[in-house]
Design brief:
The protein is of the alpha/beta class. It folds into 2 domains: 63 residues, 2-Layer Sandwich (Alpha-Beta Plaits); 250 residues, Aldolase class I (TIM Barrel, Alpha-Beta Barrel). The protein has 11 helices and 14 strands. Strands 7-8-9-10-11-12-13-14 form an 8-stranded parallel beta barrel, surrounded by 6 helices. A 4-stranded antiparallel β-sheet has the order 2-3-1-4. A two-stranded antiparallel sheet has the order 5-6.
């Protein structure tokens, strides 16, 4: 249930709602707005409890039963759009934030060259994988801790926040010490131990949609992060698995407006993994901006032909520069900017 308190409700009135929920064995989470408080009532037995139990309390304005499995990510819990601030870069506002860089950190020279190129073209955040979960155990799995060290150097050298993936629940604290944003990849979207630890870190997080998961399952996974008090959550649509095989995955462009309607969380798009081929990335990226995405996550490599991971879907620095010019025009047409 979502309890909407009256405008300017007293702290005593809010505490009464919390006490009533706790007496029923339910959990609560507060959304303290500037002039209005919303209380989320959490628990598996909420469906068995009458809304009157809370509606009768002083200064309660509305009680809404949420039939969806997700609660904290729901638009009903927070009416205004959430903004995620990362070292001065705000995701979810009028600015479309571009995160770009190599899929995997391979060497200091490669990372620095990529960082220099994407920053020069207007990217705000540097991406790079230190730990790479791969389908095959014989594939390159990243430089791991050495990769994190290189990301820190790049962050300091170019003044860019960095986003990198964390794959092990026990490694969250270690990765969080180096990364500005933690990324939970598609394969780990429903790794609930990992989500819980990432939530506890309070570090901004990019939560990628599982390639076989519904939007409802995706938002329910986001609740794991939000339930730990981490409000710095960014959703990332990266394509889902369908019967179509002309692209690596099928980008669900409709997920953008659906998320905007169903949730207050910002959403970015990864056109690189959806496309699987560099020639398709620009069109998908332009479409995502036109559809209302708050940002993009794009793979850029100084020399894709020599990339150890995902070279075929990586843009060269010159291709990325051309794309950024195109994106600026699309962003302006929908009342936003890069």
């Amino acid at each position: 249930m979502i309890i909407g308190m009256a405008k300017g409700a007293s702290r005593e009135a809010v505490d009464n709602v919390v006490k009533r929920a706790e007496s029923l064995g339910l959990g609560v989470q507060l959304n303290l707005g500037t002039d209005r408080t919303v209380v989320a009532i959490l628990g598996s037995t909420t469906g068995q409890i009458s809304t009157d139990v809370f509606a009768v309390l002083p200064e309660v304005e509305s009680v809404t039963r949420i039939m969806k499995p997700y609660k904290l990510a729901a638009r009903e819990f927070k009416g205004r759009d959430s903004l995620v601030s990362v070292d001065g870069v705000e995701v979810g506002g009028k600015r479309i934030v571009v995160m770009a860089g190599p899929c995997a950190v391979e060497s200091e020279e490669q990372l620095m060259e990529a960082a220099r190129a994407v920053k020069a073209s207007g990217a705000s955040i540097l991406r790079g994988g230190a730990f790479k979960p791969r389908t095959s155990p014989f594939s390159f799995h990243g430089l791991e801790e050495k990769g994190l060290e290189l990301l820190v150097r790049a962050r300091e050298a170019f003044g860019m926040p960095v986003v990198t993936e964390v794959v092990d629940p026990q490694a969250v604290d270690m990765v969080a010490r180096s990364a500005s944003i933690l990324q939970v990849g598609s394969r780990n979207m429903q790794n609930f131990a990992l989500l819980t630890n990432v939530g506890k870190s309070k570090r901004p997080v990019v939560l990628k949609r599982g390639f076989s998961c519904t939007i409802t399952e995706w938002l329910t996974a986001a609740d794991y992060l939000l339930a730990e008090g981490n409000e710095q959550v960014i959703l990332c649509e990266r394509g889902i698995r369908t019967f179509e095989d002309s692209t690596r995955f099928s980008l669900d462009i409709s997920a953008i407006p659906v998320i905007k309607k169903a949730s207050h969380l910002p959403i970015i798009v990864d056109p690189s993994h959806a496309a699987g081929h560099y020639s398709l990335v620009p069109a998908i990226a332009r479409a995502a901006v036109a559809a209302g995405a708050d940002g993009l996550l794009i793979e850029v490599h100084p020399n894709p032909k020599e990339a150890l991971v995902d070279g075929l879907q990586s843009l060269t620095p010159s291709d990325f520069a051309r794309l950024m010019d195109q994106l600026r025009a699309v962003a302006e047409s929908v009342g936003r900017y890069i």
